[in-house]
Amino acid sequence: MRVRPDGRGRIPPALVAGIALVLFLAIGSDALQWPLLLWLPATLWSLWAGPSERPFPLSGRLRFVALLSLMLVAVAVAGLGNWLVMASQILILALTFKALELRELRDVYQVAALVLLGLGIAAWLRVDLSLGLYLLLEVLLVPLALLWQGYWDACRGQLARVVGSSREQLVPLRRLVLFDLGFMFLLLPVLALFFLLLPRTPTPLWHWGAAAGTAVSGFQARLDPRDIRELSLDPAVAFRARIQGAVPPPAELYWQGAILWRDDGGANWSRGLPPRSDFAGVQQADPRLGGASWRETILLSSGEHEFLFSLGQMQSVQSSRPVERLPDGAWRLREPSHEPLRYEALASPDTGASTLPDSLRKVALQLPARVDPQVLALARRLRGADAGASVAHILHWFATADFRYSLKAPAAYPHGQSLSDFLLRTHEGYCEYYAAGLALLLRLDGVPARVVVGYRGGEYNPVGAFWVVRQNMAHAWVQAWLPGRGWVRLDATPAAPSGTTAGAAAAGRDRALSGTDSLWNWLQWQWLNWVIQLTPAKQRSLWSAGGSVLQGLAHWQTPKLRKMPTLWQHGGHDTLRALGLLTVAGMVLILALVWRRIGRRGVEFWQQRARRRLARAGFGDSRPGTEFVALAQRSIPAPQRQALVELIRRQRYGPRADRAGDLALKRGLRAIRRHPSADPQ
Description:
By secondary structure, the protein is of the alpha+beta class. The chain is 49% helix and 14% strand. The protein has 23 helices and 18 strands. The strands form five sheets. It has a six-stranded antiparallel beta sheet with strand order 8-11-5-1-16-15. It has a five-stranded antiparallel beta sheet with strand order 7-2-14-17-18, with helices on one face. It is elongated and about 120 Å long.
């Protein structure tokens, strides 16, 4: 800890640099901008010149002009429409120039204000559990910086007596850190209480404005692979799902999203949704008749959302945001959203009516304006006696014609291949080519077909009993209409070769998460489910659950208390249990730290405590020896007076003052207050 010429402690630049670094981590990739190249040398200068308080060569006026100029550059580079990136760059510039002038406590207050602004920007960019952890770090570091100079001044007199002992000079720092930790532990329950009690808005604040230029790889409600030379896999989590019912094997988990009807030629498919009147003869399964097989709780991660996902066909959806069911059975949000979304769905396997209306059959047999003659010849060669035979022939051809899964365009087609190239020559591509090729061949053979896009597979998390579905599991497959069976799922995509990136991603569909990944994903599930997605309805349910607990404690034999184990086992039991365990563990930790600190207090502490006890009891003041004078003037029995003299000598002036002696002194003074007029012996 450095000392200024006036004896005051100087604000450590390393602590301020750590605060800024945690803030940049919270902002994420948007902090990786050109102003960061200015912050790094400015921070190094602060660390090098800080101990000697060497001033920066530029005057304050020139620094101000430079800051304004660079802010204008940030606005021009980011663009007026991309205000989050612009705000991030301006924030980094402000922290850069503030690192050059850390002199007084007011500079730390300004850094704290910038950190508060930066955390607001980070909350607009991300809502995952990592943001909560970074927020806790800032809650720990910012008060430490704010208290640093004042605590140093308070300990200055004590340190003057032990100067030269490096170990003793660290005592104030340890005390300050322990005080900061204790303050944070006391603050967290208060924050949690306000979080649960304060009224909430129907939609989160970050929904009121989305970042410009945001995009999410993985799911797309169309097929358009023509110009893609290489497809990169994104391991980010798309959503988490909890399923009630008989869960299929991981390889059979097909999470249906959008349905594509129109073949735009080549490998391009778009939604082309037929009018609602074409679906007049199609009957959907009724969940009241027992058609539903799964009850699903889906938690979409932050990103661009329009369609909802589920196993099979969703029959009903409960969501905090307005949703609508399209005529073909797909579900979507009425307004696209970028925020995390939680919804509950009732779903059944893909089924349909025994007949297909002619108008819908016509749409499901639509062909592009131009089809390669060789593809037409291939379809004629694979045609069977009926729809079922045609499906069997085509799938057999895909399985035996040496088709390979690949994320890269073939070497002979560096700028991307056409669907004809894929079917007739290369036999190499990813799921979009297989889905488009299979659907085209089916339609050419007179089998109604459509393309479905969504996700396939999942990683099971045994800690939270839910499935993790990632963006690299995005998939496309085909549904063909077969008489008497309705829409039947068909997938011609082969398995990715082992040892490749795609193979590793595909292998993840059939495995459970490791212990660390399971715990982290469970924490992410709880964070998004109970913090980010704490809607007013959930808040009211928590209030009701808390009221039931209080009523049960007040009336031990009431039915509500006997039902508490059932309540504990349903509807958020794991979250309540985790919060309870964390609260108990935190209280035990605080008590252990307090007890350990009391046990490690030195002789000087107990001497000062004895002086305060004696002064409150009326035995003298802070001057040495006045306790014995006051004691001699009291009418106290001789044995009791002698015992008090020994205790005062031990605790007030002796080298062995401790907690046991302090308790004995406390009891002795209390006995005197009970019998103040006892006669001397």
